[in-house]
Design brief:
With 243 residues, this protein is of the alpha/beta class. A 7-stranded mixed sheet has the order 4-3-2-5-6-9-7. Strands 1-8 form a two-stranded antiparallel ribbon.
Amino acid sequence: MSRSVHGGRHELGQNFLHHTPTIDRIVRLVRATDGPILEIGAGDGAITGRLVALGRDVRAVDLDEHRVRRLRRRLQSVTVVHDDALRTPLDRPVVVGNLPFHLTTPILRRLLTDGRWTEAVLLTQWEVARKRAGVGGRTMLTAQTAPWFDFTLHARVPADGFRPKPSVDGGLLTISRRREPLVDPADRAGYEQFVRAVFTGRGRGIGEILPKSRRATLKAAGIPPSALPRDLTPRQWTAVWHG
């Protein structure tokens, strides 16, 4: 097969999913959503072909021009676009993607700052999926975005479910935009700065890290003073913020 002008598999970060149980689960999750679908990183179309069967408008995006050409021939009912996931418009209500592992964080950051989609069904590295869903503690990025988005971990995907086999397992993650944000969108920049300050602040627990003016909210929100920033739930974060 010809090499893409953007490089080979390693440069493109391509690990193609062939794990049928995971593909089935992705399709079930998408079926529960409504509206046109955007698939990023379509690759060889293992997911794309199944999405077509849902009878919805599908736009598939891939950076490899050779795979784009083959998908256009094979799936003529799909709009197949040669584009970069870091630039393509995220203008459909449902986003689906087997994300290139080396681009997971920038693609997620882009998704979480774009306002035109409502549901995302994503395959990422296992550790990324765990952290985004708050398993074992939330990251700063998750805490910063949780007032507007809900993260759910659905499954661990074995590394040998991809071809070529990556060095780590995958994780199936969904992100839903909250219909009722926990923080006013107009306050988002200030809230994100507040979360950053707490995550990077000095102290042995949230009771020491928080400014004194906000410490009174801890007991009402059910937060022990010894809790670490990673331990707080989205509603606890917003209680501290509003306090």
